[in-house]
Design goal:
Shape: globular
Distance between the termini: 42 Å
Helix content: 55-70%
Oligomer: single chain
Order of helices and strands: HHHHH
Radius of gyration: 16 Å
Structural class: mainly alpha
Amino acid sequence: MSMALKQVFNKDRTFRPKRKFEPGTQRFDLLLMDWIEVQINNENIFPTNVGTPFPKTFMQVAKKILSRLFRVFVHVYIHHFDRVSQMGAEAHVNTCYKHFYYFVTEFNLTDHKELEPLVKLQPRYCT
């Protein structure tokens, strides 16, 4: 693990930057994606061998990952969607969000209150 990553992990391997980063900044987003990658690659959380049981904390960790990914969608839609549209990537981002939304709602992986920041978009993209 890089020194930069070691600086943002507590001993329980949760993502808590020691320095305050404004959510949505490039540095915060990179650290967040690195944290998610570490979680997904951790075989104690996401076992890769058939027959290995998932830990009791699996759902808690998965929900935390999805909650933080949702915040990235919120940031993109609120602060960068004009740029996304200029690049012609609007349909791609909308499709990613639609799949994300259906996945987390189908399997009850997030509280509906957490989805409120983009509630106005859901009828438009998730029908």
